[in-house]
Amino acid sequence: MLSALDIFLQQLVNGLTIGMIYALIALGYTLVYGIVQLINFAHGEIFMVGAYLGLLACLTLKGLFLGKGGAVLLMILVFCFAMSGTALLALLIERFAYRPLRDAPRLAPLITAIGVSFLLQNAVMLFFGPSDKSFPGLIPVTRVQLGVVSVTNLQILIAVVSVVLMTLLHFYVKNTKTGKAMRALADDRQAASLVGIHVNRVVAMAFLLGSALAGAGGVMFGMYYNTINFHDGYLAGLKAFTAAVLGGIGNIPGAMVGGILMGVLESLGAGYISSEWKNVFAFFILIVILLFRPSGILGERVVKKV
Amino acid sequence: MSRRKKRKVPLTRLFLEYRFFFLILVAFLFPLVDRNPYHVDVLVTAGVFMLLAAGLHVIVGYAGVLNLGYAALFAIGAYTFALLNLHWKISFWMGLGASAFTTALFGMLLVFPVLRLTGDYLAIVTLGAGEIVRIALNNMDSLTGGPNGLLGIEHPSLPFTHYSFGVDSAPYYYLILLLVLLVVFTLCRLESSRLGRAWVALREDELAASSMGINPAWVKLSAFGIGGFVAGLAGCFFAAKQGTISPDSFDFVVSVTVLAMVVLGGLGNIYGALLGAFILSLLPEFLRGFEIYRMLLFGLALILMMLFRPQGILGEARRN
Amino acid sequence: MKSLAEFPVLKVENVTKNFGGVSALSRVSFSVHHGQILSLIGPNGAGKTTLFNCVTGLAHSDEGDLYFGDLLINRLLPHEITAKGIARTFQTIRLFKQMTVLENVMVGAHSRSRAGLWGALLKSRWVRLEERKLTLHAQRLLDFFGLAGKAHECAANLSYGHQRKLEIARALASAPKLLLLDEPAAGMNPKEKEELLVLLRTIRDRGITLLLIEHDMRVVMPISDRVVVLDGGKKIAEGTPKEIQNNPRVIEAYLGRRGPE
Questions:
Q1: What pLDDT does residue A103 have?
Q2: Which site among C17, C19, C91 would you substitute to test the A interface, given the most A Cβ atoms closer than 10 Å to its Cβ?
Q3: For residue C156, which residues of chain A lie inside 8 Å, CB to CB?
Q4: pLDDT band at A274; cut points 50, 70, 90
Q5: Do B128 and A122 touch (CB under 8 A)?
Q6: C62 neighbors C50 (Cβ within 8 angstroms)
């Protein structure tokens, strides 16, 4: 018989898993907002496209790989395909839809972002159909008992992949030239461009990285829930955005913390309150943070221009 | 320079000078000329959207706040009248006022706590608020009828007579025409006032506007109040005409559609909003085969608009 | 009632402002007295505009106090500060480009009028009177600046020099007691700078206290009663223009880091 603590811990573990995925998506929002102060409305859709690209890769390549080692290789290829696909898509969007509007009044890029979001959502819907699509399992799921909670190997996989990706990103931003340039741009765009930083390239890189992460998140989402729908991007996107704001928009560790927190809160909320109001939950949290602590838990990192 | 102007005024010039008069005349005569009830009905829907676009344009075009949850205010207007009518037999005419003021109040209450946020965050909050309202309407079955909505709402009837509007389109047409004209007249009046100037200043440059002594919070609040008021009118009309309402009619897509109308016509230009509403309402009628592509094209249209003509069809040219 | 003679119009006391690790202002103190013209000079990035922002409420000082007369204005919002009697222009022109010249000035007087939402809707008699008064007030200001002929033109169509003038006119519309001008001479030719000096003196003669940020010494020296020099967020010198010119620390601060003349 499961005790209350056991149930709680189990929900916690589930929440951590989905939280990792939210964190990956949230990083995309935060990277972009930190540098260009744009809420990339279409980012949730990028995540969704990642899931569908993963699906496409799975279906196309599934027959080619047999045997144990083949599954791992297949998975790697699926990830690569999805991630490069989303990265490329993001680059195109940034180049043709957002960049021309970089100095336009605030309203314009926001509206464009909504337009891109609609475009992607409906393009996927028209291409793949409006009904749920089942995402094939790439690896057989086994349960492992860790003390009082049971964890699937899939959950462990998601956690590991997420942590690896986030660590790589953190390393990138901290140590590479472009990464440092990103931070410089986030602090003061004018000064940064005066120092010779190629603003366009750095912005494009931010989009690329954020979207690759979202793509990975999409694949893992598909693997975890086994069904995907063109509407998933909207919901996950909003939750991830809430996570980014929760952790402090523009703040990279904040996005990670926020994502995990969102996942945990959502899981606990669904378990203890009701799963119907699950989606409203995210909005409530968002509004509450914006009301009482708009700079988020770890503090926002956005240049305030006067 | 001493030549005397010819007395004869060419017809085209006459048309341009009194264009509004002519437009209104044409609008007035339309149902009498074109007897097809379906056509009239389409125009009634267009009229509702024109009201909504006018209201949203105050919020977006003047206060410069991107409101992504306008459909929620539309819904509140509709449900307010529906509930008043079903439970207390409140007539349509009283309902108009009640809906309008209630929705205005809601609009202001919803935005009040988050006024000091910058535009981007405010936009997201409006989106969230819109969704919360819709989900709430969907789930509060006892009050709102849940996903099935409310049925049996009374149609309007002319006061002091027994004439009920029923399902005939024509009386609704004239009613919505009247409402649109009233709203447009009132908004134009507001534009050339201290508040109107404050609105435009705020939209252009919030920082500079606040340095001029304009309180951004109050100006935004009033914009949401006006926007809410108009949405309430539209909602009440919609509920009375349809007879039944459900949360499906008030989703995010509606919010974005109205936004697209305002953007298409030209931000900050009320005639632009009306034109955008007119075009986007009628377009589906002409693109019959392309139903499924509608949302795709909407998205594309928004992107292209912002890239190539962000000021909309009519531009932001302030009317005289 | 505040007696102007008792309190300085503006008192900046140990104002400190940090931006994420960077010290933009560090314990800056000075005062401006009624009818004075005080110029704030210093190399780029010295913190001058930040100080303006702290005074006008666009930024909040982390430490220190700001007094307008006997009123502590630290935590006031920008529109409240304007209502109290402080007006400003901006380093980059922030006119309302889509409004006409006249409307820009009328907006400047927003804090001096009262008509609200109901007034706009009902257009009652007092509202219409107020509008008329506002229009006249604005037109008079435009006359003073020589912009009357362009009253109904779009602000975006004005020449650069005219736009700068319009910004000052707009700031004056709120009938301020203290006027902050952020680089008013930027981009002007010598003739325009001469006109500006005359203008500033006339404004001062009308009883308005002036606080200037300026890089051009040919504007600062002739007109200032006092000069405060900032460098790296700290005040490094204060005195009459003559004293500042000969101050070795000031000269050192500018050597190799000359701002645009």
A1: 79
A2: C19
A3: none
A4: low
A5: no
A6: no
Contacts of C53 in chain A (CB under 8 A): 306
Taking contacts as CB-CB distances below 8 angstroms, the residues of chain A near C20 are: 187, 301
Cβ atoms of B206 and B226 within 8 Å: the answer is no
- Please tell me which of the candidates A187, A301, A306 has its beta carbon nearest to residue C58: A306
Is the CB of B263 less than 8 angstroms away from the CB of A111?
A: yes
pLDDT at residue C203, rounded to an integer: 93
Contact assessment for residue B225 and residue B104, using Cβ atoms and an 8 Å cutoff: yes
Return d(Cα A154, Cα C239) in angstroms, integer: 73
For A75-92, the pLDDT digits (tens) are 888 999 999 999 999 999
What is the dotted CATH code of the domain comprising A10-129+147-292? Answer: 1.10.3470
3-state helix, strand, coil in chain B (%, to 5): 75, 0, 25
User: For B211, which of C78, C99, C112 is closest by C-beta distance?
Assistant: C78
- Percent of chain A exceeding pLDDT 90 equals 36
Q: Which residue of C lies nearest to A306 if distances are taken between CA atoms?
A: C58
Domain ranges of chain B: 37-254
Residue whose token pair is 């962000």? B310
Distance CA A288, CA A300 (A): 16
Query: With an 8 Å Cβ cutoff, are A119 and B299 in contact?
Result: yes
Picking from C175, C174, C181, C196, the residue whose alpha carbon sits closest to that of residue C52 is: C181
Interval B150-192: pLDDT, tens: 888 888 877 777 777 777 788 888 899 999 999 998 998 888 8
Using alpha carbons, select from B288, B184, B269 the residue that is nearest to residue B226.
B184
Q: Are C194 and C225 in contact (CB under 8 A)?
A: no
pLDDT of B30 above 70? yes
Contact of B210 with chain C, judged by CB distance below 8 Å, is answered with yes
> Domain residues of chain C, as ranges?
1-85+177-261, 103-175
Whether B66 and A104 lie within 8 Å, measured CB to CB: no
Provide the 3-class DSSP secondary structure of residue C52. helix
Query: Cα B24 vs. chain centroid, distance in angstroms?
Result: 18
Q: Do B208 and C115 touch (CB under 8 A)?
A: no
- Which chain C residues are within 8 Å of B194, Cβ to Cβ? 110, 113, 115-116, 119-120, 130-131, 134
**pLDDT for B75-112, tens place per residue?**
999 999 999 988 888 888 889 999 999 999 999 988 88
Tell which C residues from 167 to 196 touch B, by Cβ distance under 8 Å: 170, 174
The CATH-assigned architecture of domain C1-85+177-261 is: 3-Layer(aba) Sandwich (3.40)
CA-based nearest residue to C195, from C217, C223, C214, C159:
C223
Q: Are B109 and B177 in contact (CB under 8 A)?
A: no
Q: Is B214 in contact with C107 (Cβ distance < 8 A)?
A: yes
Backbone φ and ψ of A144, nearest 5°? -125, 140
Q: Which two tokens stand for residue C261?
A: 């003349």
3-class secondary structure, C10: strand
Cβ of B306 and A104 within 8 Å?
Answer: yes
CB A28 within 8 A of CB A217: no
